[in-house]
Design goal:
194 residues, alpha+beta, Immunoglobulin-like, Serine Threonine Protein Phosphatase 5, Tetratricopeptide repeat, 2 domains, four-stranded antiparallel beta sheet, three-stranded mixed beta sheet, 7 strands, elongated
Length: 194
């Protein structure tokens, strides 16, 4: 019995001594994207999302490096890591809420999607004139939104105002000449924009 306990202890010591070790990354809140920042190139490589266990040998860095935690709505957090011979290195970060909330780009896109969705609902409800007014508001600020031009053309088409529909569709195709959705619709309905 004594021999088997010693044998197990030797095996555990040998296995733990040969192990390459691991990092355990966690964040509060969970779900942050975790990046390894290469110390030589300064490029980021995605490791996964928190909580995450990662083999030390997979990072192949003999020098200190940074691990970056990023999550939408929170400020990015960088943690310097010094390579050690320890079997387990635990890294836990408390992320700070970004006082600006979503990034400006995300906020703009989310707002635009919401506007287009509400306008599409008006078209389904056959409130074409109201939809056109909403689309004009969108296009006043963002004339590059192809989908708004398409929806405006469709609203005119459903009101049997073909000349206005064609003008809107031409603008859409100027912005996106290969728009499959619109070109297929025009071909199916046998509508010539000339």
């Amino acid at each position: 019995m004594k021999c088997s306990v010693i044998f197990i202890a030797v095996i555990l010591f040998f296995v733990s001594g040969c192990s390459t070790g691991r990092y355990v990354f966690s964040s509060n809140p969970d779900g942050a994207s975790i990046y390894f920042r290469d110390p030589q190139t300064n490029k980021k490589f995605l490791l996964g999302s928190s909580p995450l266990e990662y083999s030390k040998s997979s990072l192949d860095s003999k020098k200190a490096f940074l691990v970056v935690f990023e999550k939408q709505g929170y400020l990015p957090t960088s943690v310097p890591i010094a390579p050690t011979d320890e079997i387990l290195t635990t890294v836990n970060v408390n992320m700070e809420v970004n006082p600006n909330g979503l990034s400006d780009a995300s906020s703009t896109i989310n707002g635009l999607v919401g506007q287009l969705f509400r306008t599409q609902k008006l078209i389904y409800q056959k409130q074409y004139k109201t939809a056109i007014l909403e689309l004009d508001r969108i296009l006043e600020e963002k004339p590059w939104v192809t989908q708004a031009h398409i929806m405006k053309g469709t609203s005119y088409y459903l009101m049997n105002e073909m000349q206005s529909a064609i003008e809107s569709w031409k603008k859409a195709l100027t912005l996106d000449p290969k728009n499959h959705e619109l070109t297929k619709f025009l071909a199916d309905k046998n509508i010539n924009l000339e």
